[in-house]
Specification:
15-stranded antiparallel sheet, mainly beta, two-stranded antiparallel sheet, 1 helix
Amino acid sequence: VTGGGFRLAPLALRIGDGVIRVEGRKDEEALGGSLRFEAMPLAVSGLFFDPALAGRLDGTLDLAGTPEAPEMEARLAVSEGRLAVEAATNLAPLEATLTAHLKGGRLESSLTATMDGAATLNMEGNAPFPLQLRPWSFDMPASAPISGNASWELSTKPIMDVLGIAEHYLDASITGACAVDGTVAAFAASGDAYIKDGYYENSLTGMQLKHIKAHFRANGPVVRLEECSAEMGSNGDVKATGELRLLPSEHFPFTVRAE
């Protein structure tokens, strides 16, 4: 520790076969530091979660800039990720990469994640992140622009088999893509999402829904449930429509109509 700052000498912490390396400094004019994960076993999550995770984490997080305008560059990668339960051995492992870049009060990030035969997710975003360390401040301006996009494909059956939720079972294909832009206080979206070939069963009540299908469409400040239908056997069919308004100031009001 010196005057108006500090310096952290390089430090290595070994956990199983993995290593966490950290070093850093801060003075009146500049920030600097790095955090590195090398083959970190995700099994350490068992200290906080049950069931634990399996797999490994690699990545770097570098800090720079000044106390008034910090900058950050990060890249994290998960490989061979899965729940540490026997049923998970039948599910493809999670491979995911997250990147993030903070500069000039804005955060750019991207995420890709895949589980062969079960899920694929791609996301990108750009949003304000007005962090200031001296004096401490995080004042999010309502008029700041945001943008982003996402696409996904999900098959629920293999995931439900691993989770082993006894009361509820869902077998469906969920796909979609969307984009978001506007400001923090007033943003808009565009895109579509679909649920196809769905089957749901509640083992407690005996309720079954067959041939579930749904279509969600985002257009500007509204996300509409354009179509939703399912067969309930002797109880007939069920249909629904609805809409969600993207109004943070009004806590995202929504309506649903079923018949």
